[in-house]
């Protein structure tokens, strides 16, 4: 049956802008006819596996930090090794060399170590930021007719000002809408009754990992920026639905537009049987 998609998240936006086919297989597989292709694939690229484990370990670290427990480098590495062993597929368990595994752990450790040297995290660890919490993006916020996954990773308060922080462990080369994407966290704050409902009471922070470094962005949001953010979300969801209509007519994922660059395909779980493989190099 035809339906209207209402969910927005940064992950959806990123996949949609990079490849319509990948987006469709991941998010249009809600009926029996389409689920098989999604369920069959358990592929996750090594770099996505490493990012997943890094996030999990970082949040465990923050959880302990909240209780006043500090981790040594040794603990971080052993937690990363454990998470990698838990999340690795049985096929990769057989294929992955110890060398490769150690390299992934090294990359993950580097991200966490360098993140903990960033000013916000340093202040949290040094207890000069005392009122803080951390969140994962599992709960959605209702915004008009949309369900938006937009919660910050860390929230802290300094005086009367609330700070919303987003961590991106694997940023893309170009992020032309970074300001608006970061401002989507304001919608989460509006859904959270414990926080004040005023844009000028917030500061937005983005930390993005790219090519071995964390890049920092700070935004003082305005009504105009908030308005533009809402428009971006509405437009994105409209475009998701336009694509869905196109897919609904043909019922064929392989007729949808493919990624512009094969570089993007390297981390795609739907690469086997993708028509991109038939295109000339
Ligand atoms: S392999 Fe590439 S073109 Fe095919 S679905 Fe994945 S990202 Fe898109």
Would you write up a description of this structure?
The chain has 281 residues and is α/β, with parallel strands linked by helices. It has a domain at 46-125. The protein is 49% helix and 15% strand. The protein has helices at residues 10-18, 20-27, 32-40, 46-66, 73-87, 90-95, 98-115, 119-125, 178-183, 185-191, 223-250, 262-265, and strands spanning 7-9, 132-134, 141-143, 146-149, 154-158, 161-168, 202-210, 213-219. The strands form two sheets. Strands 2-5-6-7-8 form a five-stranded mixed β-sheet. β7 and β8 (213-219) form a beta hairpin. α5 crosses α7. Bound molecules: iron/sulfur cluster (SF4).
Search tags:
5-stranded mixed β-sheet, binds iron/sulfur cluster, 8 strands, 3-stranded mixed β-sheet, flat, 281 residues, single chain
Tell me, rounded to a whole number, the average pLDDT. 90
Helix-strand string? EHHHHHHHHEEEEEHHEEHH
* Bound small-molecule species: iron/sulfur cluster
Q: pLDDT under 50 segments (min length 5)? A: none
Query: Strand-residue fraction?
Result: 5-15%
Shape: flat
Strand order of the largest sheet: 2-5-6-7-8
Quick description:
The chain is α/β, with parallel strands linked by helices and 281 residues long. The protein is 49% helix and 15% strand. The protein has a domain at 46-125.
Q: What's the layout of helices and strands?
A:
Blueprint: E1 7-9, H1 10-18, H2 20-27, H3 32-40, H4 46-66, H5 73-87, H6 90-95, H7 98-115, H8 119-125, E2 132-134, E3 141-143, E4 146-149, E5 154-158, E6 161-168, H9 178-183, H10 185-191, E7 202-210, E8 213-219, H11 223-250, H12 262-265
Parallel strand pairs: 1-4, 6-7
Antiparallel strand pairs: 2-5, 3-4, 5-6, 7-8
Helix pairs in contact: 1-2, 4-5, 4-7, 5-7
The chain binds iron/sulfur cluster.
């Amino acid at each position: 049956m035809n339906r209207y998609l209402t969910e927005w998240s940064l992950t959806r936006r990123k996949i949609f802008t990079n490849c319509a086919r990948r987006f469709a297989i991941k998010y249009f597989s809600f009926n029996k006819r389409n689920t098989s292709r999604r369920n069959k694939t358990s592929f996750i690229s090594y770099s996505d596996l490493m990012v997943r484990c890094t996030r999990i370990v970082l949040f465990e670290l923050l959880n302990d930090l909240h209780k006043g427990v500090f981790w040594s480098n040794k603990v971080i590495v052993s937690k990363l090794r454990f998470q990698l062993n838990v999340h690795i597929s049985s096929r990769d368990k057989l294929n992955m060399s110890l060398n490769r595994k150690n390299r992934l752990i090294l990359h993950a450790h580097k991200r966490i170590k360098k993140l903990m040297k960033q000013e916000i995290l340093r202040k949290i660890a040094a207890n000069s930021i005392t009122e803080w919490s951390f969140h994962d993006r599992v709960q959605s916020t209702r915004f008009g007719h949309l369900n938006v996954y937009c919660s910050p990773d860390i929230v802290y308060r300094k005086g009367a000002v609330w700070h919303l922080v987003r961590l991106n462990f694997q940023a893309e080369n170009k992020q032309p809408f970074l300001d608006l994407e970061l401002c989507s966290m304001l919608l989460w704050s509006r859904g959270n009754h414990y926080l004040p409902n005023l844009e000028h009471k917030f500061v937005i922070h983005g930390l993005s990992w790219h090519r071995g470094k964390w890049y920092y962005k700070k935004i003082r949001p305005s009504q105009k920026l908030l308005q533009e953010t809402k428009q971006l979300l509405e437009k994105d969801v409209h475009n998701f639905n336009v694509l869905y209509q196109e897919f609904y007519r043909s019922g064929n994922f392989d007729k949808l537009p493919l990624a512009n660059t094969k570089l993007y395909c390297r981390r795609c779980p739907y690469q086997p049987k993708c028509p991109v493989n038939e295109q000339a190099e």
